[in-house]
Design a protein that fits this description.
The complex is a heterodimer of chains A (369) and B (396).
Chain A lengths: L6 H17 L2 H10 L7 H9 L17 H15 L5 H14 L2 H12 L5 E4 L14 E5 L2 E12 L6 E8 L2 E8 L5 E7 L5 E14 L6 H36 L1 E2 L2 E2 L4 H30 L4 H27 L10 H13 L4 H12 L3
Parallel strand pairs in A: 1-4, 2-4
Antiparallel strand pairs in A: 2-3, 3-7, 4-5, 5-7, 6-7, 8-9
Chain B lengths: L1 H26 L26 H12 L18 H13 L9 H13 L2 H12 L5 E4 L15 E4 L3 E12 L6 E7 L10 E7 L5 E6 L8 E12 L3 E2 L5 H22 L5 H16 L1 H29 L7 H24 L9 H8 L1 H5 L4 H12 L7
Parallel strand pairs in B: 1-4
Antiparallel strand pairs in B: 2-3, 3-7, 4-5, 5-8, 6-7
Helix pairs in contact in B: 1-3, 4-5, 4-6, 6-8, 6-9, 7-8, 7-9, 8-9, 9-10, 9-12
Classes of the chains: A alpha+beta (369), B alpha+beta (396).
């Protein structure tokens, strides 16, 4: 599919942008952060996003979704990156993909609708180490009567605090499998993790915790698909955040006066800004290509997800450093918004693998280096 | 309705692909496949063509007969009349079998598109078919010894003599100037006008006593460039492209093609990838002992892939006319830097053997940096992006 937005996608982007600007400007995120609210996202905003079809638009029509694909989910995440909208959209899209990949027909029918409608927040719990390492899976599942119990621990659980349920990976009889754990299950402890970006994260400890298995076979492919999707969506969000920080920086270069002239007239700053502009222009294509290839199920989709995540992690980091530097002292103050973008870029860059992880993944996996 | 039309056009395109594939298989001789796509070994045509060997000559003639040397140009001007999607299919199918470009030509890549936009009907009918048929070899006369990055300060002058211009001055970095038949040239015709407004775009026949070109030997040893001297060269008025004094508009338009081409050439180049070169040279074990080198290989591979995607997006956006006018500057800037980075890496991978004066690695390593200067230096690209894309103010 062409690397150009379709008419439907353009309309979706416009409506998402409008809604985010109206209902979730950066000031709303700042107010939420300052309120100390433990959930770290806004229920009424999330309900509005769901009403407008912005939650997990990748869910197939047959499963109660919009069936607009990963591309649509990514384009929405890009817009959310512009305003730092704190809502569990990322976890919804990933969990929905995990469920769609592993669940029985009956389970899909029961579980996906409530995610799309925003009624239930279901968080993916895959990682077990501080540095993303999907090969590490030590949580174990034991058969217990008709069901299963899980024992182990999970970290970096996106939107994991006070979720209604979690999709948890574990080893079941020697193969990776996916399970659903309900809030309030016995032997489950959920610890809120306060991160720099003031989003909702949790660590889970599971000890003989009752769980429902999704499907009954090896879930490796479903987990891989969920990771690919999550990586591409994070890349899209990082693109939005980096683009916003860059645009704000260029505006500042045109306003700030020193030595009797606007600092944007200095070639030393102009060329650095032009380099950021150039890298963002290239990255836009890379992110869209990754989203498109996931929708097409192309052979390279998993590698393009890594390429997009590596590219955007590095680029967003560089853009944020330049944004802080070019804003000078004011860029380092908490009152100014640049710092909020800097922090989000760091978290989103880390989640599901940073640039080092994905460069290594491509080097070894795709190119056999 | 829309989806039916889309399906029909997809199936048409697929049948075009199959026919093209079969024709290429039957008509592209072995000697025109999987050979290095280097400037010096290509077929350039012209009034006194250099014979490229039997297979490449046959390949050129067969492609030229169908107008596929210029696949997307209108048939009336000797092109292939393909639509952009068909043009891309042809390119992909040529890449699939490693077919070289049948004709190397600045007429194809630079002058032709500018003539199609700015030329009169007479100019189009006179010059474009000769380009597509490889009958005239063109050179570009832009830079001067005193006008490099500051191109608009050029001083080669064209005196208006009624039915012709009399041209005097000197150009430099004229690609293959000493082998070309004609040269498209920027000439100052209104010495008193502001510097961007006094320039005209002239087509000058080099086969006359007033034009002389002398090759320049570069650090790679090649002689692609020349100095071109004009001493009372005569240029009939019919060879003025665009309005008199508005040659800068033609020049800028033409430069966008040059820049896009320079920027995306790294992604389209045939031959083994850097990863394959690295594995051949050092093996997995050797690379594991040098994690820094291995990382550089991976990063260059990632950047090249991104460049290919950017070229694909540039094509897609161009088809629906939503391409940013600044993307060619971006491609030129990052693409030429990337090419130079890749050839430096190839030198490291080759080690001592890569230092071979006559070897491919050393040649490429010395050949790539000039592209960071040519076509408007990369600093000029950064200036254009700063001032025009970002609208940052001039320093006063």
């Amino acid at each position: 599919m062409a690397l150009v937005l379709t008419l439907d996608e353009t309309m979706l982007v416009d409506s998402a942008r409008g809604l985010f600007e109206r209902e979730a400007p950066v000031t709303a995120f700042r107010a939420l952060r300052d309120s100390g609210e433990a959930l770290a996202w806004d229920r009424s905003l999330y309900a509005k996003l769901a009403e407008n079809g912005l939650v997990a638009p990748n869910v197939a029509e047959a499963d109660g979704g919009l069936g607009m694909g990963t591309s649509a989910a990514g384009l929405i995440m890009e817009q959310s990156g512009h305003v730092l909208a704190a809502s569990p959209m990322l976890s919804a899209a990933i969990s929905a993909r995990l469920i769609a990949g592993a669940a029985s027909d009956e389970q899909r029918a029961a579980m996906l609708g409530p995610i799309v409608s925003g009624e239930r927040v279901v968080a993916p719990a895959l990682d077990e180490a501080a540095r993303h390492d999907p090969a590490l899976l030590e949580t174990t599942a034991e058969k217990a009567g008709d069901g299963w119990t899980l024992t182990g621990s999970k970290t970096a659980v996106i939107d994991g605090f006070d979720a209604d349920a979690w999709v948890v990976s574990a080893m079941a009889r020697g193969v990776p499998a996916l399970f659903v754990v309900e809030n309030g299950a016995s032997g489950l402890s959920v610890e809120r993790f306060a991160a720099v970006d003031s989003r909702n994260y949790a660590k889970l400890a599971l000890s003989g915790t009752p769980a429902m298995r999704l499907g009954d076979s090896d879930a490796s492919a479903a987990i891989a698909a969920g990771l690919d999707l999550g990586r591409a969506l994070l890349a899209a969000e990082l693109l939005g955040a980096a683009d916003e920080a860059f645009t704000r920086t260029v505006s500042y270069l045109k306003e700030r006066r020193q030595f009797d002239r606007v600092i944007g007239s200095f070639q030393a700053l102009q060329h650095r800004a032009a380099r950021m502009y150039s890298r963002l222009d290239i990255a836009r294509g890379v992110v869209l290509k990754a989203l498109r290839s996931l929708d097409e199920g192309s052979e390279d989709a998993t590698w393009l997800a890594s390429l997009s995540k590596a590219t955007m992690t590095r680029l967003a980091r560089d853009v944020m450093m330049e944004a802080m530097q070019m804003h000078g002292g004011i860029g380092m103050t908490d009152d100014f918004d640049v710092g909020l973008f800097v922090k989000r870029a760091q978290s989103a860059g880390e989640l599901l693998g940073d640039d080092h992880f994905h460069t290594e993944r491509l080097a070894a996996g795709k190119w056999g280096l | 309705m829309a989806s039916q039309a889309q399906e029909r056009s997809a199936s048409d395109l697929n049948s075009f692909r199959m026919k093209t594939r079969a024709w290429l298989e039957a008509n592209c001789p072995p000697g025109a496949r999987n050979v290095p796509q280097k400037m010096d070994s290509g077929y350039w045509g012209g009034r006194n063509p250099e014979y490229p060997g039997e297979d490449r000559m046959a390949w050129f003639e067969r492609m030229a007969e169908r107008g596929w040397t210029a696949p997307a140009w209108p048939k009336v001007y000797g092109g292939g009349g393909l639509d952009p999607a068909q043009g891309r299919v042809l390119k992909q199918e040529m890449q699939r079998i490693g077919a070289v470009d049948p004709l190397q030509s600045l007429g194809l890549t630079m002058l032709g598109p500018a003539l199609l936009k700015f030329g009169t009907e007479e100019q189009k009918l006179e010059h474009i078919p000769l380009i597509a048929q490889g009958k005239i070899r063109w050179a570009q006369g832009y830079s001067e010894p005193g006008a490099g990055s500051d191109l608009a300060s050029l001083t080669t002058r064209g005196e208006d003599k009624g039915d012709h211009f009399l041209v005097n001055g000197q150009k430099i970095w004229t690609t293959y100037g000493h082998k070309a038949d004609m040269i498209f040239t920027l000439v100052r015709t209104e010495p008193d006008a502001p510097k961007h407004l006094g320039i005209s775009f002239l087509l000058i026949d080099m086969d006359q006593p007033g034009v002389n070109a002398k090759p320049i030997r570069m650090i790679s040893g090649n002689e692609h460039f020349a100095q071109t001297f004009f001493d009372d060269a005569v240029v009939p008025k019919k060879n003025l492209v665009g309005e008199q004094g508005r040659g800068w508009d033609v020049a800028k338009y033409l430069l966008t093609f040059e820049r896009s081409m320079m920027g995306e050439s790294i992604g389209g180049s045939a031959g083994p990838s850097v990863a394959d070169l690295a594995l051949d040279a050092l093996g997995k074990e050797g690379l594991a002992r040098e994690p820094g080198l291995r990382r550089e290989v991976a990063e260059v591979m990632m950047e090249i892939w991104s460049n290919q995607i950017a070229a694909e997006r540039m094509f897609d956006l161009g088809r629906v006319s939503t391409l940013s006018p600044f993307t060619p500057n971006v491609m030129k800037l990052l693409g030429t830097e990337l090419a130079a980075r890749r050839s430096r890496l190839a030198m490291s991978l080759g080690g001592f053997d890569a230092l071979d004066r006559d070897g491919r690695d050393a040649y490429q390593w010395l050949q790539d940096p000039p592209n960071c200067v040519a076509g408007g230096s990369n600093e000029v690209q950064l200036n254009v992006l700063s001032k025009r894309a970002l609208e940052l103010p001039e320093h006063k």
